[in-house]
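Morning!

As promised:
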Amino acid sequence: MGERSTQKRQLIIQAARRVFAEKGYKDVTMTDIVEACGISRGGLYLYFDNTGELFLEVMRAEEGMADDVFSGQLGEDAAAVDVLMVFFREQKREILGKKGDLSMAVYEYCFTAGGKEEPSFRRRFESAIMALERLIEAGIADGSFYEVDARAAAHNIMYALEGLRICSRTMGLTEVAVDEALFALAGGLVME
Amino acid sequence: MGERSTQKRQLIIQAARRVFAEKGYKDVTMTDIVEACGISRGGLYLYFDNTGELFLEVMRAEEGMADDVFSGQLGEDAAAVDVLMVFFREQKREILGKKGDLSMAVYEYCFTAGGKEEPSFRRRFESAIMALERLIEAGIADGSFYEVDARAAAHNIMYALEGLRICSRTMGLTEVAVDEALFALAGGLVME
Amino acid sequence: MGERSTQKRQLIIQAARRVFAEKGYKDVTMTDIVEACGISRGGLYLYFDNTGELFLEVMRAEEGMADDVFSGQLGEDAAAVDVLMVFFREQKREILGKKGDLSMAVYEYCFTAGGKEEPSFRRRFESAIMALERLIEAGIADGSFYEVDARAAAHNIMYALEGLRICSRTMGLTEVAVDEALFALAGGLVME
Amino acid sequence: MGERSTQKRQLIIQAARRVFAEKGYKDVTMTDIVEACGISRGGLYLYFDNTGELFLEVMRAEEGMADDVFSGQLGEDAAAVDVLMVFFREQKREILGKKGDLSMAVYEYCFTAGGKEEPSFRRRFESAIMALERLIEAGIADGSFYEVDARAAAHNIMYALEGLRICSRTMGLTEVAVDEALFALAGGLVME
DNA sequence: TATGAATGAGTCTTCATTCAT
DNA sequence: AATGAATGAAGACTCATTCAT
């Protein structure tokens, strides 16, 4: 009773997630969503007015899940090197993974929505940069990283990762190529 | 006769380029192209069957023009540092520039085409990497660059540039942010 | 039990009246009514099956209220001239008034219902004519009106008023224009 | 070549006229028009964007036909009485005629369009009033009409006719009733 | 009785694509 | 070769109406 509507909302959002992951953003029609969640046309409109709204909701749901990239997976007192490695491993998976990943849709959405929408993507990106920066500082402090400019290094890494992601999507990258790139990034930080 | 048709072909391609630069890829309709080149509907179909074909042709034409990023602008014997600076300046313009640039359209095309994509984008990217690698080697040879792994550095720079491009398009980057990123990239190579 | 349902019925009818007065007839949806009376969708259907039925009910309720145009406002023994003036003043208000008046809705309903229409509109119109006719006869009898054909005069006045009403709605009439028309109508009856 | 498009335009307008005459204004859908003129959906949109535009066009075509109510049918030097009679006969036909008449649609259109559109209906009405006024003056001049206030009389007649028209549409009027009303209107002007 | 979520038919609108000229 | 009118399929959106609770 309110529960049910929330339940169905979630069901729709999950179905939509699948569709966006498969078709990107622009190509997705309300009909696609309708078919994906086995609901009636009017039924869908009861919850969401257009694909943009739905996409935002999908992203919001996403945010709730994979928010803290750096915490959770490792204890507070884990070595900076280890945290970095875990982070890179995760990134590699994302960069190479074709299915079940929304990055293409996100890019398309941003192209389309043209600025007037939620700065949440930017926020996410910036908070990742800051977390990475703190990690690098920690690494420097405990002597395991070179004494680089933490801020610049964090930015460089994030841009390169973004570049890898898009290159992987647009022209395909082999696992080896990604490994090499990540290895080089790590090599710029970690001693030995 | 064959001449005239070639002429018209070129005219269409140029008009299409303008349209793609302005609207990206997916939003472009045959009607847009028709209007942009003042040709008849049926006339356009005589030359191209759909926007995808047209886009590929636009890209092919592009290739012919701006292929050699590193030559042409500077003499063969220019200092590596100078060539690098010119390259970065050009990249900065592209990264920040909204109008008259096809990168969004390229991304969109790749997202959409999914799989059957022309290897031309990849070829372009790889040839740029190789040129950059040779440049770095030259810089190392003449003592103006640090003794880095040229191949890895070239890859890293290209990925970061791609990342900057997409970040600029999707969430907006200030000129300062781009400058800082480029400065950091240059700082990793150039001595002093 | 039966009481409560009657109460709710009235509540719905009143809310519907407001909606019809504001939006006319055709544009009104069941949803509009639902929203206007804060009842549930299904609840409304328990009482009325469609907007047509509701509109008829609204009209029936109306009939009960403003039926006797000529009585009530003035005592039985009021002078014919005075009654006529009061009637005209009221008509003027209605003709010019945009809000809170159902005439547009009535017209629309009649246009739409096409054929199966309730005879209630006609009854109302005819009873008004007859009342007006009696009034004119009274005026003639007491010497304040010219000796016209009362029946014909009553008809003419009612038709002209109807014409004024529709002209006001469809092309807008100034207050002056209405005044002139009413003055001319009165001038055809009242001596002096 | 341009001729043909004009031809088809006319064909559509005529089909639309039939539809509006039958269904009024609001109920008419683009699909109705499409079916009425045996054209494709997209084909119709090539010429008209919505029913409102079409309706205006229908009205414009109408205007071209029955413009001058008072001339054409009678010579310049016809007696005022005769002209009036011809006018009334024509009005009677219109008032009683159900089919093939656009007045209901016009009313509906005006209700809906709410002022922002063409004042052409008003213009038509006012020019009719003026023509009638001149006719009355002519009748007075040649001694066949009573010495009434021509302007007021013309207005009264036009309002009454409009009232008759709407009454006929909304509650049905017998031919006798219309005859009586017109006879009364004429009686107020014509001597004997 | 009463609720409001769910349905699906109907309308609008846009485009890629064809075809007679 | 070239034209542009015509087509129809596809997607968006709204509402009257039903139905399980």
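Residues 129 and 155 of chain A are 6 Å apart (CA to CA).

Hope this helps with the figure draft.
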